């Protein structure tokens, strides 16, 4: 998000298209990559390498067409002396439909250089199983169902779920094997100073956390991520079966 001096907090969907239309998106992305490296360098110096989380930075569709993209990012990592595993690059699935061959080539070069490549919003609009096969990204993120989580794990791919807004959603995703989650349930967008306070709290082990409660419910809610029934079923260890009954006949 961007904290506009007059418009308040603006989401990426409100201002990124403006940069794409006026041709400034690559300059904007380069600025954000540089700021990410500066943050990582400062946190490493202050807290040590092992206490610093990785940052994921966005690549726009225009960036994918840059011939010097990989070399530029490698040079940026070297300039700030950042471990490459702390700097992840994230591509939206919309970039895939425009020029899949170009995207696949860019992703391959980034991976060969040592970057972790994430696909953002997988399954929310354009992508299909072909994206999993043809684009060699490392992480899938987006609107994730239990079957997609399992499929990704069969392909040895970790999964990020975005937009988690409630405890029941978080517990459900955890129960079906989701690796990483983000969303308003954990935190609203914050500035750098606030995030650094969170890092310090995490180091001291003082991050707030709550308990978990479960409620009974009917099995019609089994496929609802908000349902505690789904949470219990997916957390169950051992054999289980679903039986559909019609009146007295099963």
Q: What is the number of strand segments?
A: 8
Q: Largest sheet, described in full?
A: 6 strands, parallel
Given the helix and strand composition, which structural class is it?
alpha/beta
How much helix, percentage-wise, in residues? 40-55%
Short account of what is shown:
With 250 residues, the chain is an alpha/beta fold. It has helices spanning 12-22, 25-47, 61-64, 69-80, 94-98, 100-113, 129-134, 146-154, 167-175, 192-204, 228-235, and strands spanning 2-4, 8-10, 55-59, 87-92, 117-120, 139-142, 159-161, 180-181. A hairpin with a 3-residue loop joins strand 1 (2-4) and strand 2.
Question: Could you describe the 3D structure shown?
Answer:
The protein is of the alpha/beta class and 250 residues long. The chain is 46% helix and 12% strand. The protein contains eleven helices and eight strands. The protein has helices at residues 12-22, 25-47, 61-64, 69-80, 94-98, 100-113, 129-134, 146-154, 167-175, 192-204, 228-235; strands spanning 2-4, 8-10, 55-59, 87-92, 117-120, 139-142, 159-161, 180-181. A six-stranded parallel sheet has the order 3-4-5-6-7-8. α2 (25-47) packs parallel to α4 (69-80) and α9 runs parallel beside α11 (228-235). The chain starts with a strand and ends in a 15-residue tail after the last helix.
């Amino acid at each position: 998000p961007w904290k506009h001096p007059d418009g308040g907090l603006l989401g990426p969907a409100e201002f990124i298209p403006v940069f794409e239309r006026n041709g400034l998106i690559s300059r904007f992305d380069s600025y954000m990559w540089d700021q990410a490296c500066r943050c990582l360098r400062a946190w490493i110096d202050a807290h040590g390498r092992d206490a610093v989380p990785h940052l994921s930075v966005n690549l726009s569709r225009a960036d994918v067409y840059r011939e010097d993209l990989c070399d530029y990012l490698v040079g940026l990592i070297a300039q700030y002396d950042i471990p490459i595993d702390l700097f992840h690059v994230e591509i939206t699935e919309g970039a895939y439909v425009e020029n899949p061959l170009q995207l696949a080539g860019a992703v391959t070069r980034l991976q060969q250089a040592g970057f972790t490549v994430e696909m953002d919003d997988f399954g929310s609009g354009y992508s299909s199983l072909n994206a999993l096969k043809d684009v060699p990204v490392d992480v899938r993120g987006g609107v994730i169902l239990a079957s997609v989580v399992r499929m990704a794990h069969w392909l040895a791919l970790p999964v990020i779920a975005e937009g988690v807004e409630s405890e029941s959603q978080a517990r459900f995703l955890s129960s079906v094997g989701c690796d990483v989650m983000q969303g308003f349930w954990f935190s609203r967008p914050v500035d750098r100073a606030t995030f650094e306070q969170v890092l310090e709290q995490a180091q001291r082990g003082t991050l707030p956390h709550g308990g978990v409660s479960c409620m009974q419910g009917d099995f019609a809610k089994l496929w609802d991520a908000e349902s505690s029934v789904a949470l219990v079923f997916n957390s169950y260890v051992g054999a289980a079966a679903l039986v559909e009954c019609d009146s007295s006949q099963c």
